[in-house]
């Protein structure tokens, strides 16, 4: 068994004996050990404590790594992304700067349909290689686990192609990856006036193959005005659930879509976005086991009001943070920026943001028993920071790269 002893850790962050989803005021509790050591056996956390208590004899044959005053955090758990896409959309970014609205751009064939056209034309190998390079970049930015959605296919072949790419990424990457089927991202052009026809295709043509080939862990629907209604969302999610896929819903992004309430009723793992919330939606979420996943970089990029993180936490909700990495509304998968933006713009405490981007992110992918905290028996997926004066410095100095090294399942990158 290969053992590694990491010494001289200024702060070992999010150290827990046992874990569960954190809600409300629990999010502000971030247990740390100052001046710590950490022991890793193979890919697993095997021990930790204060430097003066390093178990000298027992680990004499252990390889030692001196953290030299850097701090160690669990790697980020990014529970909402669209990392497989064929092309960037910076031309739409410039249209928006010039004053065009999302609707104007969609009318010009832009938006999700633009990504869908390009994805359907792209060979599977190219999509895989592009997504592989993105995962490589994200892992160096400290992401250790990631959820990836389909939803830029919108045809049977396109959706299956995306999910097969995600399956291949799962098989080959050291990162922990979960796959979500988002066939209900928007209505393709040819079904513009035949919504039921597309829903039938999702249910009858796509879901049975996805289930047979085990291509997805979750089902997602963009529940939004002009996209999928609450009734359509429930219908599609229930069809997915009949195939063993649990729901994770795009909810309350642009309007009070009822997506949160539908998700809660269905027992969704998470409802995601939540830019546009009222008291009814907040209370529904607070009294459920569904995690509310906030995507602040999407609000930032679309110049929308940020998610009401304080109201959600004060109401007792379980909150996760994710990047929403996609070419249209969040062309960044940098979780360090997500954490900083959550503190700066949503007034989350650094402790709350780190918990939401690690432990609760892991639970939003049902990986809470494997990742998201420094816990004996969990995977050793870690961020080693450069020496920083305090934990709050990490989101405060949002423009600096404060990562020294990243470890994924016991291996330094
Ligand atoms: N809101 C829906 N879907 C994506 C954006 C899709 C796109 O514009 O390509 C999101 O989560 O933000
Ligand atoms: Zn999304």
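Q: What amino acid sequence fits the structure above?
A:
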């Amino acid at each position: 068994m290969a053992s590694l002893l990491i010494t001289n850790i200024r702060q070992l962050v999010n150290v827990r004996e046992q874990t569960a989803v954190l809600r409300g005021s629990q999010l502000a509790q971030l247990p740390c050990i100052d001046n710590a050591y950490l022991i890793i056996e193979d890919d697993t956390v095997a021990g930790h404590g204060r430097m003066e208590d390093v178990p000298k004899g027992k680990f004499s044959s252990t390889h030692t790594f001196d953290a030299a005053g850097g701090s160690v955090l669990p790697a980020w758990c990014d529970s909402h992304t669209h990392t497989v896409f064929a092309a960037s959309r910076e031309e739409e970014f410039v249209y928006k700067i010039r004053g065009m609205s999302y609707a104007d751009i969609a009318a010009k064939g832009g938006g999700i349909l633009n990504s869908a056209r390009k994805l359907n034309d792209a060979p599977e190998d190219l999509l895989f290689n592009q997504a592989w390079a993105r995962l490589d970049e994200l892992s160096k930015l400290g992401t250790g686990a990631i959820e990836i959605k389909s939803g830029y296919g919108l045809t049977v072949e396109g959706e299956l192609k995306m999910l097969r790419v995600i399956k291949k990424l799962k098989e080959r990457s050291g990162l922990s990856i979960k796959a979500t089927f988002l066939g209900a991202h928007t209505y393709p052009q040819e079904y513009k006036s035949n919504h039921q026809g597309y829903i039938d295709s999702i249910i009858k043509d796509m879901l049975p193959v996805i289930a047979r080939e085990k291509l997805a862990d979750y089902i997602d629907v963009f529940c939004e005005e002009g996209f999928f209604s609450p009734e359509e969302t429930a219908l599609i999610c229930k069809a997915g659930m009949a195939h063993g896929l649990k729901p994770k819903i795009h909810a309350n992004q642009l309007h009070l879509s009822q997506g949160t309430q539908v998700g809660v009723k269905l027992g969704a793992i998470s409802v995601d976005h939540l830019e546009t919330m009222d008291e009814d939606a907040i209370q529904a979420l607070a009294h459920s086991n569904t995690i509310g996943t906030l995507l602040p970089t999407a609000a930032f990029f679309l110049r929308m009001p940020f998610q009401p993180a304080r109201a959600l936490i004060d109401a007792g909700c379980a909150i996760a943070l994710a990047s929403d990495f996609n070419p249209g509304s969040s062309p960044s998968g940098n979780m360090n920026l997500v954490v900083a933006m959550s503190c700066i713009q949503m007034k989350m405490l650094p402790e709350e943001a780190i918990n939401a981007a690690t432990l609760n992110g892991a639970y939003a992918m049902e990986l809470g028993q494997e990742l998201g905290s420094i816990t004996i028996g969990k995977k050793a997926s870690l961020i080693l920071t450069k020496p920083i004066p305090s934990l709050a410095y990490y989101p405060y100095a949002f423009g600096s790269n404060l990562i020294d090294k990243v470890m994924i399942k016991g291996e330094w990158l």
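Q: And what stands out in the fold?
A: The radius of gyration is 21 Å.
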